[in-house]
Amino acid sequence: MNTDILFALFVASFVNAALPGPCMIATMGRTLRGGWRKGALVSLGVLAADTLHIAAAIAALLGVLSLSPAALIAMKWAGIAA
Question: What are the angstrom distances between the C-alpha of 29 and each of 6, 39, 61, 64, 81?
């Protein structure tokens, strides 16, 4: 995996962490109760969890592709793979 893909993954994870939702509410709540350091720790935890989730999804897609090369064509049609 080259650095361009890793950087894109990092940016996507960072943007995902900033979107409103349960993680944002947890981060804001922890920041208001414990200060910015506690909020930053929660934010880093969310970012780490999102990165692991994305890595698991990529591994699952690669597993499907290794079982059936024809699955790549189906994934391209579905917009999942490039």
Answer: 30, 8, 35, 40, 37
Other C-beta atoms within 10 Å of 40: how many?
Answer: 13
Domain ranges of the chain: 3-78
* Cβ–Cβ < 8 Å for 4, 46: no
**CA atoms of 13 and 21, how far apart (whole Å):** 14
Per-residue pLDDT for the chain (82 aa), expressed as one digit of tens each?
A: 578 888 888 888 788 777 788 988 999 999 999 999 999 999 999 989 988 998 998 898 888 888 888 887 887 788 766 6
What is the model's pTM? 0.63
* 72 neighbors 65 (Cβ within 8 angstroms): yes
| Contact (Cβ atoms closer than 8 angstroms) between residue 47 and residue 17 | yes
